[in-house]
Design a protein that fits this description.
two-stranded antiparallel ribbon, about 60% helix, mainly alpha, globular, disordered C terminus, single chain, disordered N terminus, 17 helices, 4-stranded mixed sheet
């Protein structure tokens, strides 16, 4: 599938053998390691997950008990398998994505009837990619290419194993919810798995960009997932401004609400994903990767665990320092030993910080009738 003058490229057009080839040139990444695109938060969340009490026991038990054969038979019998004769355009995208990320074994892919736009990569021994009809009908070719690359990224990173366990435990928790305290331990693991999976989505978004190599298509796809097939009514820049407003808005009460809102979700909020992806696309790391400088799978065994921990820790530290979220600002103040922590917490949570500074200049009796101090 490579062009004659570009051994690392995937050229467009139709080959002499009649095979469909991608519509334009895309860079290929031979031997690429998933470390090249994995978000530091993904790796650190996975480390935290593996340290969770009882997780190793549950993981080992479920790895042997999960009915993966039954899962495969279910999709085989009640969905449409993508291939040379069915959904051929998706088959071309899948093979193209595996070629670009150098994934030798092409995962099985199915289209299932569901109006909700969604896609997932599951399976223990061999990953299975499933996309819904709602997603296929919503996205154009380049947007869909990014989604297929996203799922192939999950497969290359080995995310499908933990995703399968998350689905099984979520189902199990619903079945035993009537037992007093019966699902407390399971819910702790589910919560940790969801936290990791939200971070893994940021990694897979990066893989989708490496496959599609079209940032605008990735942005459009995320916008459509958020707002439907109304591109003429939407704007990428305005959509990204929502992410800024979401991060900056409110006081500590809003920060707590953000945490509560995201806990039951398996995916990060769409505007946040778009902002994170655009930030990475503008980074030096992404440019170096596109220039062919990236870690290889052959080097994975020599990777330092300490360096991975250090990178993740540095990422979180930088995130807290640069964040405009009120809670993150408070944590930065606390970490730098700033003054009255109790007072800061009270003022930030009640939104009275600015009010207090005004009060230091004007006494209540001098305040105008409509001011809070006059009430």
């Amino acid at each position: 599938m490579s062009g004659p003058n570009d051994p690392n490229g995937v050229r467009g057009g139709t080959g002499d053998d009649g095979d469909r080839l991608p519509g334009r040139n895309r860079r290929r990444f031979p031997g690429i390691s998933s470390r090249a695109y994995e978000h530091p938060a993904d790796r650190s969340a996975l480390v935290a997950l593996r340290k969770l009490s009882g997780f190793d026991t549950v993981f080992k038990a479920l790895s042997g008990l999960l009915p993966e054969r039954s899962l495969r038979l279910l999709f085989l019998s009640d969905s449409v398998r993508v291939g040379e004769e069915q959904f051929t355009h998706l088959n071309d995208m899948l093979r193209d994505a595996c070629h670009i990320l150098d994934l030798e074994k092409v995962p099985a892919m199915y289209v299932t009837q569901d109006p909700q736009p969604n896609a997932m990569c599951i399976g223990l021994d061999s990953p299975i990619i499933v996309v819904t009809t709602g997603l296929v009908e919503l996205l154009d070719e380049e947007e869909m290419r990014a989604v297929v690359g996203h799922e192939v990224g999950h497969a290359l990173s080995g995310h499908s194993v933990y995703r399968t366990i998350l689905l099984f435990l979520t189902s199990l928790a619903l079945r035993i919810a009537w037992i007093p305290l019966g699902n407390v331990a399971i819910m702790a693991i589910i919560t940790a798995l969801r936290e990791w999976f939200r971070k893994s989505e940021l990694s897979a978004d990066r893989a989708g960009l490496l496959v599609g190599q079209d940032l605008q298509a990735s942005m459009r796809g995320l916008m459509k997932i958020a707002g439907g097939n109304h591109l003429h009514e939407m704007n990428v820049d305005a959509f990204l401004k929502q992410a800024e407003e979401y991060e900056e808005s409110g006081d500590l009460r809003d920060s707590v609400l953000k945490i509560l809102n995201v806990l039951p979700r398996s995916h990060p909020f769409t505007t946040v994903r778009a902002a994170e992806l655009k930030k990475w696309a503008a980074s030096r790391d992404y440019q170096r990767l596109m220039d062919g400088h990236y870690p290889r799978r052959s080097e994975d065994k020599d990777t330092s665990v300490y360096d991975s921990f250090k990178e993740s820790a540095n990422h979180y530290a930088d995130t807290v320092k640069s964040s405009k979220d009120p809670l993150m600002k408070l944590l930065t103040d606390i970490g730098s030993g700033a003054g009255d922590i109790g007072g800061k917490l009270r003022d930030r949570f009640t939104g009275s910080a600015a009010q207090g500074s005004q009060g230091s200049q004007d006494s209540p009796k001098d305040a105008p009738p409509d001011s809070p101090a006059a009430d």
